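Appendix B, example 12.
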Amino acid sequence: MRSPCSALPALVLLACSGAGQSPASPDDASSDGSGTPDVVQTDAGAEAGEASPVDASDAGPPSAACIDEVASPSCTSIASQIAAAVAATPSGAITVSVPACLNEHGAAIPYRELVRVPGATSAPSLSRPIVLSGQPGAEVRGSDIWKQWSMQGSTWVSADSIPAFGPGNGQCLDSSGAACGSSMTPDCLRCTWVEQVFVDGQPRRHVASCTDGTSQATCGATPPVDATTFTLDGSRHVVLAAAGGFDPTGHCVEVSMRPHWVIADSVTSGVTIEGFTMRHAASGGNDGAIHNGLAANKVEGGGQSVGDDANSKRYPNWTVRSNVLSYAHSAGISLAGTNFPSCDWSSGQELVIDGNTITQCGDFGLASSCSQGTTVTHNTFASNGGAAIGGVIDPGFNPGWGAGGFKAAVQNGMVVDRNTSQNNTGTGLWCDIDCFNTTYSNNIVTGNTGAGIFYEISDTAMITGNTVSGNGPSSLCCGVGCAAGTGCSFYSGGQIVASASPNVTISGNTVSGAMGIGILQQYRTDSCDCPPYNPSCCSTGLCSGATPYHNVHDLSIHDNDITETAAGSGQGAVAGLVTDICNGTCAAGTAQAGSACDATYYFDAAAGAMIDYGHDTYHIPACTLSDWAWSNGSIAWTAWNGDGEDTTGTCGP
């Protein structure tokens, strides 16, 4: 198999003349008629996000992994191709067919540039539709190759510096894998460090030893590094270990210099991005490397000094399809309407994400919020949310805050159909906060460390026809002898979980795992500033007189095939409800007061809860096992039936 850098020349170029053609002559390559080719180098001397003229004196000796492309092709950047297409199309839709960039040997090399999609200067309705269509071999990378290094003691230090991206967003795990909470120690800020370094295509883990809790490069300390890590010195030079005779000049070292692959250059509508391979982006948490809005960060021309563009203005009618995306620090794609706290659902409508393969992104494969009519179809989300480097999950986003395959929030009418979400660190498919009228159908969700499909503090959903297996922990602790607060833990995952969300139908799914299909009722009073499409998202529920909260009612779980794989009574939870609304939560004199978390109330139609399991098939080693979750304990099949649940269902091996 070829090295990921084996197709890169010593002088790395942005773009080329055309796929399947011999390199263009200088006259052909010029965009201004001067005969000077638009050949640009992406060594770190270029201004971040932009191109710089080739300077052979800066190149240094070629890296061994890049030796097969020493010659410089005459290529045209994607920016020049877009400008030419716009000029040639005075009205109507614009199509830019982007060929693979070829070196003189006919091998494809990446475009190393930020792609800015042009639009109107005022309303989205005035912008023209534009299609950027990558042809076979067309690849965009947010990294540049660095070739200038000097030995300093037991380390190699780069001649160039990474731009000051600023801290990103996110809640982190420390390097032991523990949740950090509010800690501001450097080890608990690591997921907010967006910098990336790749050696021969493999990522290095960013380490730091600062004690001031501000950033990884301000305290002046240089921590030890090894063959799996890198750090920055106080001037933001990259520091690599020289142990074992490692010499970066004999390897392909790529350093991410741009937060995004694609952004809007102005007001856009009707944008399609298709057919590309894209890798390496220093995107901040809650943001994505393909971003349907303007850049807010200073590195790309915005005004803010943080590495997080999630709250920048977004635009409607974007389609991202049939791309292969990997190694964004946060999400591969972030498509949204105007983001929190002033969601404008009309600005993010008609977002389409179809047929993409998104892998190895540090937070999510896809993130989307504040939109209506979003469709997510035929995508593969795999191995996102971080991966072990030297035994430490990197970049270390806390899955409880957000990590995994795909997370959405504040969506009206979203359809998620025929996707595969597998082997992600975190949740497979997740809708959190004010999703409404959502459909999850015909998806394959397997091997994620968190829940398979998780519908949280939202309302009205159809979850049907999905195959969901092997998600979450392989066993859990329920009942007597468990540590305090562990409970029958749909808290820690499950194949399909509806959490504090009413009006949900879960039907016709095939699930298998330690935890099957469950309901969570937590006392969630947050996010009760309800959206206009669901003005009654919170109510007092069974706790009349209490502060309104997201409460469970009118759930129908039927005709599912559920296999429990955990061995032993209390080691799994095949179905049921877990709640933390217990004594003292509800006002005195109400139905729930003094109930000691009695799940009966939630299954009692007379009380208005109406959670109904029916016609489900349970495969469990023995139906006498107490593996149906009941409040914070568990019961067996006969008790489950005795309370009126799944009296039309079946239980057996």
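The two ends are 45 Å apart (CA to CA). Residues 1-64, 67-72, 211-220, 478-488 have pLDDT under 50 and may be disordered.
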